[in-house]
Amino acid sequence: MTESPVPAGAERSAPARPAQGRYRRRSRRLRVLFPYLLVAPAVIYLLLITLYPGIFALVQSFHAVKFGPWTYVGLANYERLLADPQFWGALWNTFVIGAISLALQCVIALALAYHAYRDPWVRGWRIIFLVPMLFMPSAVAFLFKLAFLDARVVSDILIRLGLIEQNLSIQSSVWMSRAVLILADVWQWTPFLFIIFVAALQGQDEEIEEAARLDGASWFQVFWNVSLPLMRPVIAVALTLRAIDITTMFANVFIITKGGPAFGTETISYFVYRTGFKFFNFGYASAASVVMLVLTIVIAQTVVKRAFRSARS
Amino acid sequence: MASLRTTRRDSRLLRYLILGTWALVCLVPVAWFLSIGLRPRVEIITPRPIYWPTFSLDAWHMIWEDWPMARYLRNSVAAIFGSVLIDLVLAIPAAYSLARYQYRGRDDIAFYILSTRMMAPAIVAIPIFFLFRSLGLLDTVWALMIVYAAINLSLVTWIIRSYMLDIPKELEDAARTDGASDLRILWEVIVPAIRPGIITASVIAMIFAINEFLFTLLIASTPNAYTMSVALANFTGGSDGVIYNAIALVAFLAFLPVFLVVLLIQRHLSRGLTMGAVKG
């Protein structure tokens, strides 16, 4: 990596410029700074909207804030947080719902992509499968709330099929409530992975596939032993992006379950929202935000960095 | 030979069975939701679900007459287009810098920009709420614009950067030997050459902006700044609670333009969704 910011191809044209002392010195400094100047506005904008809130949350987390003035309370918020079963519960719920949902989406999307990518109608399948993804998440949340809870259409269909005797009592069961959240996420976001996997499968070298086929391997063997290992970096990036969005899930919880029953579906985002904006316990909610921020940075520096690096090479 | 042919036909049957099943899984709920939007409110929540409802445009009249739907629509459009514009103005130079120059700290800057995509909205929600309150921007479309732009900036920068990396350097060299400055090259050579990338990035940013829920919920506390996404959550009233037929219709109203635009960028979709990491 060279130190001076020489734009591609500038080496050749640079000597042809007029060699006037002052002009050249100023333009040289400008040229060193130029790439920084180009990137600076974007970075400053993002710092304002991430670093400032980070510091604000950190400061606020050492205070008790209830409507009026802030009173300094030291680490009290953190002590309470780490002893709060609802906080740990929210972390656990986020993990359980996210992990199951992500695993299901990945398996379904891979299966669909494997069957679709050599199909002559692959473009048609892609358009059909895309549809759920293009609805607003809040609309999808209402769709699932209506189908499972309010209109009980799902129960009705299952009864007609003779699978159950009477309406499912979803609202009183933690696992059934979680299942609704998981199904909503799987329904809406499996297309995200599908689109990416199909593109990766279509983009791979056909000669490798054909060579394996000539050796007598079945399509599934080719997929499992050749295509899948080649796709690993792509899968890593896609799953990382999906995992980020699942762990920050909010709209579905807010609309479908409100975190219930018995806090069994309260995700970490909903926990912060509830303590902050429902109980106006801003200092406490900020402490939870800081803990989340630290977790985010750790995960970003390890998993995400590696995923994107391997995908590029 | 014969057995080979039957297994091939079997596998094709299996393939269409699997793909067809998922197609139904995708489309049946959507069709049912559309039927919700086109039925009277009394036929939505009933002791036994009604599968063949009476056709009614009640919800259509309701969203325009009882609710300020036109204003929600205007708010959404203004916030979304404004935010995408901010993103492009900031991201195009940034992406050019990250794609075309060698300098100290470049990779760290690129990763910092990427990492803002991972911030949970809940982490920054409270400080942003206080910030906008002190600036007097709560409940305005400007605040939404600023937030949406921030959410999507990482994605727009990375997508555009990925397209810039694909441009052959000879293209710029030619312009440079003609004595064009770097900024002019960016504007007159690079930007036209990566138009598909810019469009892809804009469309994907648009989708995420339409979908945004948590910030909008906190920032927009009255219909003044409601967008379609949050307006949905406020369609309640009367003894039956949530007004589902209005929600369903608004959902389709927001879906149609998104669907049409996405059809246009279909080929670039996978690349856009992975922030440029996967070339479709």
Could you characterize the architecture of this molecule?
- The complex is a heterodimer of chains A (313) and B (280).
- Chain A has a single domain (86-312), classed as Orthogonal Bundle (MetI-like fold).
- Chain A has 13 helices and two strands; from the N terminus they run H-H-E-E-H-H-H-H-H-H-H-H-H-H-H.
- Chain A has helices at 10-13, 21-60, 76-82, 85-116, 122-130, 137-150, 153-160, 174-203, 206-214, 219-247, 251-257, 268-278, 282-312, and strands at residues 63-65, 70-72.
- Chain A has a two-stranded antiparallel sheet.
- The model of chain A is unreliable at 1-19 (pLDDT under 50).
- Chain B is mostly helical and 280 residues long.
- Chain B is globular and about 75 Å long.
- The mean pLDDT of chain B is 87.
- The chains are: A mainly alpha (313), B mainly alpha (280).
Give a brief rundown of this model.
The complex is a heterodimer of chains A (313) and B (280). Chain A has 313 residues and is an all-alpha fold. In chain A, 74% of the residues lie in helices and 2% in strands.
Descriptive key words:
heterodimer, A: 313 residues, mainly alpha, MetI-like fold, two-stranded antiparallel sheet, B: 280 residues
